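Q: what sequence does this backbone want?
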């Protein structure tokens, strides 16, 4: 068919076992948008964006993500219930089944790459069953120039077959959907799920193994931006803590919103070429840049629209995890290429639903290492009685599901780089204030931004501990004042109006930290262990 689109030489998929020519190569976003509409697989929103439903899965499925255990990975991967082993034989058999399935279908092929720093560039070919999944790849990976395409050297391949269903009885999977990583064959094999996030997180997981092991470079689950003076800031945090929201700031150039490397040439570089933002309750006034990025070319997932195509961002009928992907150039103020100098400040974002961590606090080097390994945030979960309670959630390195190596490996590299670069580390609670979830309220985005800007503008009296109060439970340094933020907001205890309830809850969280950290104690020095909470309940 038209795999010679736009006058490019034709490519063949025979090396993958795909013997037909019924595929479209390197279609433009407009073409993919049109085809999706024509096939009835999506609708155009009034903003011009394409809106699709991803189907059964509206989020990643960590229990169905496997790594092939073979000579490359066997001794290096931290195997367990996060990095679940898969046999090479089962992979080969399942791969052949997926290919047989794709041999019956019209396909979309895209060449793109990861890593803005060309020393680390990874050329990727993405083969998708659906046109809109290919648009996601266009939006999220880096788009090669025509010249770069002529010298394209595919290193990794993503094969995405949402309509294929595995048979767990014979295929070695847990259920019908799967995301498999094979480091020997350099393939990410995805089936049974249309959730696009699996595509980008598959390549992220590959880089999180390859960069530290082969290139001595630190990969990070963080966003990054750069100020007018060239000062880089990075933001680590688990899903929903604010990486995308807070890195997208009109006064600073966006480097990237989710995945970066910190190289040995004193720079931070984006792996990706686009952003993947949550749109639940998105508001034009609070997040104008993200709102404006939702236009033709953007891909909305699982949102509810009226007849006229107006999206109701508050409608979570399909999922809480409504999303949009867009190429980074949909944001006005971006850094080109997506590379910044060594960071001056690192923020650890946490959405503390217990409402006990200070909205901003400064960490010592020990505390930074401790909190990085812990990777705390909180989720809210309903119980049988319909009561909604916060549940602590720890994910090492603020991204355990994507980290194939032992967390200590990444923590060591980060500590070393932080020392060399002399960065300051801040813990930012973007979660609750005035009480736990259900009692208190979410921290105002306006305040969180003001606190971050105060740090970045040097307005928090960085080296002057007279301006800080040491938190009696967590040991972190909490500023007493911050421009643009009411003083009482800075002290979580003061916002509760109930000291006893506050301390009871703070101790509960301190204990959760301690319990979680037990698995890492053997790997942590005395110095790192001292970075944990200072007091616990007994
Ligand atoms: P993921 O890793 O899943 O992409 P993320 O860390 O990028 O997650 P965001 O997409 O930035 O998370 O989500 C943060 C959400 O919380 C947004 O919907 C944002 O509007 C909301 N929010 C509310 N209050 C705050 C706050 N004080 N700081 C940051 N985000 C806030
Ligand atoms: Mn994000």
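A:
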């Amino acid at each position: 068919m038209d795999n010679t689109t736009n006058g490019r030489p034709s490519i063949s998929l025979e090396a993958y076992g795909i013997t037909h020519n019924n595929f479209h190569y390197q279609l433009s976003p407009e073409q993919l948008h049109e085809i999706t509409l024509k096939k009835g697989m999506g609708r155009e929103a009034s903003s011009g964006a394409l809106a699709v439903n991803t189907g059964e899965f509206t989020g990643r499925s960590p229990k169905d993500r496997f790594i092939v255990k073979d000579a490359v990975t066997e001794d290096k991967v931290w195997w367990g219930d996060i990095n679940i082993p898969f046999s090479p034989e089962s992979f080969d058999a399942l791969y052949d089944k997926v290919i047989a399935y794709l041999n019956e279908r019209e396909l979309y092929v895209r060449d793109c790459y990861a890593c803005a720093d060309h020393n680390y560039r990874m050329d990727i070919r993405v083969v998708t069953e659906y046109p809109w999944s290919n648009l996601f790849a266009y939006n999220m990976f880096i788009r090669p120039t025509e010249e770069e395409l002529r010298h394209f050297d595919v290193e990794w391949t993503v094969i995405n077959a949402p309509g294929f269903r595995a048979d767990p009885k014979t295929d070695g999977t847990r259920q019908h959907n799967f995301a498999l990583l094979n480091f020997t064959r350099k393939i990410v094999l995805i089936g049974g799920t249309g959730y696009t996030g699996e595509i980008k997180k598959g390549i992220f997981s590959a880089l999180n193994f390859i960069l530290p092991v082969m290139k001595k470079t630190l990969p990070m689950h963080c966003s990054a931006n750069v100020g007018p003076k060239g000062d880089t800031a990075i933001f680590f945090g688990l899903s929903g803590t604010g990486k995308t929201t807070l890195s997208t700031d009109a006064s600073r150039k966006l480097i990237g919103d989710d995945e970066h490397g910190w190289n040995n040439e004193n720079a931070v570089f984006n792996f990706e070429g686009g952003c993947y933002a949550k749109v639940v309750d998105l508001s034009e006034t609070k997040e104008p840049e993200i709102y404006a990025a939702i236009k033709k070319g953007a891909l909305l997932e699982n949102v509810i629209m009226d007849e006229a195509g107006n999206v109701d961002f508050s409608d979570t009928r399909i999922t809480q995890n409504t999303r949009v992907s867009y190429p980074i150039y949909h944001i006005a103020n971006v850094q080109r290429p997506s590379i910044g100098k060594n960071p001056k400040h690192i923020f650890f974002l946490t959405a503390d639903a217990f409402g006990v961590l200070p909205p901003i606090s400064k960490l010592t080097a020990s505390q930074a290492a401790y909190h990085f390994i812990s990777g705390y945030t909180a989720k809210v979960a309903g119980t049988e009685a319909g009561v909604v309670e916060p549940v602590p959630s720890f994910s090492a390195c603020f991204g355990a599901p994507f980290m194939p190596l032992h967390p200590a490996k990444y923590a060591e590299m980060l500590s070393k780089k932080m020392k060399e670069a002399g960065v300051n580390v801040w813990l930012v609670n973007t979660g609750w204030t005035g009480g736990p979830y259900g009692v208190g309220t979410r921290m105002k985005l306006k305040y969180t931004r003001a606190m971050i800007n105060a740090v970045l503008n040097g307005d928090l009296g960085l080296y002057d501990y007279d301006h800080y109060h040491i938190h009696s439970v967590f040991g972190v340094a909490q500023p007493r004042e911050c421009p643009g933020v009411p003083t009482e907001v800075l002290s979580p205890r003061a916002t509760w109006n109930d000291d006893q309830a506050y301390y009871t809850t703070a101790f509960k969280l301190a204990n959760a930290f301690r319990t979680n950290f037990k698995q890492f104690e053997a790997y942590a020095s005395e110095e790192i262990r001292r970075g944990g909470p200072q007091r616990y309940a007994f």
